[in-house]
Design goal:
Strands 1-2-3 form a three-stranded parallel β-sheet, covered by helices on one side. The chain is mainly α and 180 residues long. The protein contains six helices and three strands; from the N terminus they run E-H-H-H-E-H-H-H-E.
């Protein structure tokens, strides 16, 4: 069986308070200055405090259920999840600073809208922005799997991507043209 981690984190401020984080560093920022995507509040999955939280909760679930021989792993489903909801999330100070440090791209504007235009308006910067985001999600997934297995088990971690990501025009992954 699979333990299910249904992280309904958008309902209140409980998790940021538990992590000792200000909402400005916890929630991802969109170009229009909002912190909402498809009715959710996407949280900053790359912030060290958020990563540590996920590792702790995965270990707690693993330790709770591993006593059952048929326990196979943990399913993380619902939204928000440990990924970007779409290309219009992640223009907050923390995420953009991380991108700048990791890629060497400098000169990012101060506002979310300015950052979006700067990063998406140039083909080379856009490719670096998308590649960096993809790499960070991949690294995070591996970190979480490693945390789940750090007791020597061979447990699996499943991610369910919210169906709402496939229902909006801006998240039309199957019809997305990177040159558009």
């Amino acid at each position: 069986f699979w333990g299910r981690l249904n992280n309904k984190l958008d309902a209140n401020d409980w998790l940021p308070r538990q992590l000792g984080m200000d909402k400005s560093e916890f929630l991802l920022l969109r170009p229009d200055g909002s912190r909402h995507t498809n009715g959710q509040k996407p949280f900053n999955v790359f912030h060290p405090k958020t990563v540590a939280y996920f590792k702790r909760i995965l270990a707690a679930y693993r330790d709770k259920f591993k006593v059952y021989g048929h326990f196979r792993g943990i399913t993380m489903n619902e939204a928000p999840g440990p990924y970007f909801d779409d290309i219009k999330t992640g223009y907050d100070d923390w995420t953009c600073s991380l991108f700048s440090r990791e890629t060497g791209v400098t000169g990012l504007p101060k506002t979310a809208a300015g950052r979006y235009d700067f990063l998406m308006g140039d083909r080379t910067r856009r490719a670096k922005w998308i590649a960096c985001r993809f790499a960070k999600v991949t690294e995070l997934a591996q970190e979480l799997v490693d945390a789940l297995r750090d007791d020597g088990g061979s447990y699996e971690l499943q991610f369910w991507v919210a169906s709402s990501l496939f229902c909006s025009r801006e998240a039309d992954w199957f019809g997305w043209d990177p040159d558009e």
